[in-house]
Every structure is written in C-alpha cells, then in structure tokens.
Amino acid sequence: MKHPPIEETLHAMAQGHLPINHQSLDTLPQTHRVSYFRQVLVSAGTLPPIDIHLHAYEVYSAQFIRSTPPHQASILSQYQRWYVLRVMRRASTKAPTTANTLNIRREELRKIAAFLTWIDNHDQSLETVDQAHIDQYFAAATGNTRDLSTFIKWACQQHLATGISLTRRRSTTGIAASHEELWNKVELLLNDGSIARDVRITGLFLLLFGQQVINTVRLKRSDIEVTGSKTSISFGSDAINLPPPLASLVAEQLQTPTSRYIYHQPETDWLFYGLVPTQHVTPSHMIRGLSEVGISVRPYRRAAMLQLAAALPVSVVAGTLGLSIDTAAQWAQRSGHTWGDYPALR
Length: 346
Prior knowledge:
Shape: globular
Structural class: mainly alpha
Strand content: under 5%
CATH architecture of the largest domain: Orthogonal Bundle
Radius of gyration: 24 Å
Helix content: 55-70%
Number of strands: 3
Largest sheet: 3 strands, antiparallel
Number of domains: 2
C-alpha cells in the first residue's frame, strides 16, 4: 500500500480530494498492485463488488483502442462493444471472469490490431483486402488463429469485409509423458512432504484425473464430501471417491483456515485460497509449483487423459471428469480405444 501511486490515491481518498469509487482507480496504471488494492477495498466493503477481471479488461481495451489510429479504433470499438464485451458479460453472469480469460482477451485484441496494421502497411483496408492477402498474412503467422478467425467472421457479418475467411488450424494432441514418467510423479507427490500441499493435490488431480489446473484452482470446499472414512470430490456430475493417500492430503487442506489477513475478510469457500482478498490461488502459481518438481502440465495431462480414455467408457469419463461427451469421445479416439456405451456415439 506504500507504493506510488497507491499511497497517494489512498491519502487523497482519505482527505476527500478523490471520490472513493472504481472510476478513481481506473485512472491509475492497471498494475498488479493496483488490482490488489482494488480487491482489498472491495473485500473491506469500501467499494462495491464487481467482476474484477472483466472490469480490468474493459479498462485495458478502452485504453488500448485509444492508442490506435482512428480508423482502426473505430473497427476495434465496434468489435469490442457488439461482440467481445457482450460475450464476456453474458459469461460473467454465470461465473466470474478468470485471469486466464483476461489474458487471452488482451492477446486477442493485440493480434487484431497487428493484423489491421499489416493491412495498412500493404495499402489495403478491411473493405478491400481479399483472400490472397489473408492467405499471405496467415502463411507467416504462428500460434493459434482462432482469435482472428472469429474477428474476420464478425467483420464479414457486419459487412465491413467481404469474400474472406480463415480456416482454423486443427489442433494436435501433442507429446504425452510416458506411463512410467506419469506414475513416478504420482509417487513423488504422494510421498514427498517437502512439496507444498496445494501443489501436491493439484498435481495429483492432474495426473490421476486429468484435471486442468485452471479448473482445479476454482474448486470449492463444497465440492468435497467426507462421509465416515470416505472422501469424494465432484469434478463433474458424478462424484469420485479419492484413494486414501490423496484423501488424507485433501482432508489436511480442508483443515486450513480460509482467511489469513490482518483486516476483516469473510470466510471463502475456495479449496485453494489466494493472496488476493476473496480470490482463489492463480493457475500460474500452481503451474510454477508443478514445474519446480518436473511436471510440465500439458504432456502429463495428455498422458493421464489417454490412460483414462482407454480404460473407461466415454460416459464415465465425461460424467466424472466434467467433460462434454464430444470431448471425452475425442480422447477415446486418440487413445485408440472406443466404447459403445453411449447412444450418441454408436
């Protein structure tokens, strides 16, 4: 709180020189410290609750668009107002926007601006660019083209562009860890008490149940049920009984207080609470912890999913792991094992 400009802002608010509202914080550089300061004020009841990451994107996108040339700003503003923010606000009514979504949307906006700049540099406009230009641009592009594919489709629907399209690159399964590597890491996480407990649990959920880290950090204590000697967890519609060693780790986590701040904060229901008031731990924290013990998330999750898909019927994989039937079926196909227990797949 003693870092500028937070200290000056807090002092100005206390002296009545600055309104105590979100808009006052919007004028500051949107750093991690400012975000933390905002959430402290929300947690204390000084500011009204908002979707923090959605609000952060609204502030970021407005500032970013103002920095672009006027003709680009006009297109970007329309896309943000009529498509992106509508999608994000609709999703926010069901669950708060995640930090991962915030980062993805920021990157998407930067990619679209870079694409519009490339068009300008080739003496074209969005109205005059043709398919040959699109193919030329994306032949040299790297990474996921989904963001620009959505933008181009929207531009054509709004009659801002005509006769162009972009086929999304087909994703690949990628390299999977070996069976031996996976189970060596399971043994490590089960037995090495020097590894942080939250990292051990997250890693075991990844290795045993193929759970994405971004979903694990959003787990709540209410997702876990302890009945006698059995502990179960709900990743999807069907609960899973945890093996005893993992159940013991989860039980220890449940005994950890959910509030550790010097100021008033209500208890939270997160299984893994974070340093930011009322928020769960960030996925990047868990990924960093797993990396430190030699677990790269993607290849180990692929290994786990391929083993589960090969061993269990599609409907069981979908119901217990929180996947759609289509996604579970894709993993079954990749594993080389197909099950006929679900009518839609026959």
